[in-house]
Amino acid sequence: MPVAIITGASKGLGRALADALAARGWDLVLDARNPEVLRETTTELEAYGTRVTAVPGDVVDSRHRTGLVTEARRLGGVDLLVSNASALGAEPLVRLEELPLEGLRRALEVNVVAALGLVREALPSLRAAPAGAVVTISSDAAAGAYEAWGGYGASKAALDRLAAVLGAEEPGLRVWAVDPGDMATDLYAAAVPDDDDPRPDPASVVPALLRLLDERPASGRYGAPALLGAR
Predict the structure, then answer these.
(1) Rounded Cα–Cα distance for residues 208 and 231 (Å)
(2) From the centroid of its chain, how far is CA 223?
(3) What are phi and psi for residue 62, nearest 5 degrees?
(4) Using an 8 Å Cβ cutoff, are 65 and 59 in contact?
């Protein structure tokens, strides 16, 4: 069975994707900072009959990243790496004049540096996989200028550039940066707590990610709404 590493997998889009892959028979290595919630997620996914390994920790910790890849190799390798874990930089979001520099550093460490560190750990296994792929979860804030989204958007823009260069440097892999669009997630609620407009469930975005895995288009940046609308 193929093996996927998914960070930020205990809730939101990471959890929804893990559920879909488990239903397809994928073996999974899941990361999240909350060990209790991650254990509950693992137990639920094991009901599909697949192997699921929970590795609680923080992706900024290099030892934790090594542990994720080690567990994936124990299951057979790394076919898919999904960098979904994200940090906002401030909760709720604030204008740049108020953005704590420590918050910006945290966003860059989680969203960019840790994502690259994990890719570097996994690259030998990804290259050896029959159809190795990397998915980085982006945001429309990486491409558009929205008030109060500067720190988070800057980190996601940097992640987009890393994904684009990785795709050019690793032609044997597929590297997709995916903008999922608006979703009802804890991250968005923390970012803009006063915004109670209805938003799509993260599970509604998963078919876009599965389409990438099924059709394996060229490496690049893709918007989930466009992938879903083109079906």
Answers:
(1) 9
(2) 14
(3) -60, -35
(4) yes
Distance CA 105, CA 158 (A): 13
In this prediction, residue 230 carries a pLDDT of: 59
Backbone φ and ψ of 178, nearest 5°: -120, 120
Each residue's pLDDT tens digit, 51-62: 999 999 999 999
Q: Within 10 Å of residue 140's Cβ, how many Cβ atoms? A: 16
CB-count burial class (<10 Å; 0-12, 13-18, 19+) for 26: buried
- This prediction has a pTM of 0.96
For 214, the 3-state DSSP assignment is helix
Average pLDDT, the chain: 97
Q: How far apart are CA 14 and CA 133, in angstroms?
A: 16
Separation of CA 105 from chain center = 19
Task: Give the position of tokens 């057979």.
Answer: 76
Q: For residue 76, what are its two tokens?
A: 């057979």
Angstrom distances, CA of residue 3 to CA of 22, 103, 142, 196: 10, 33, 29, 37
- AA letter at 205: V
CA 152 from chain centre, in angstroms, equals 15
- Does residue 231 register a pLDDT over 80? no
